[in-house]
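If you are new to this repository, start here. Below is one unmodified record pulled from the training split, so you can see the exact layout before writing a loader.
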Amino acid sequence: MKKLIRLLLITGFLFIMPMLANQTFADNPPPPPSGHGTSGNQAPSGVPIDGGLGILFVLGAAYGGYKMYKAKKKSDDSDP
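And here is the target side for that same chain:
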């Protein structure tokens, strides 16, 4: 009985989720960007991604260094 309920739940989930996902993508397209070339030679109005990428790079390097330190410490502890 539990297998039947599990099968019905999984099957229902697999049929309902594509219908919900279709509703989430039903937005209107964004308006065309304004800025460069409209009047004069203005820079496009957008968000710079430089700061966020730099932060992610530093955090990734720190995490990698921590993992390397932890692996080296573990290998030093296992050596007699």
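Two things worth knowing about this chain: The helical segments are 2-24, 50-78. The first helix runs from residue 2 to 24.
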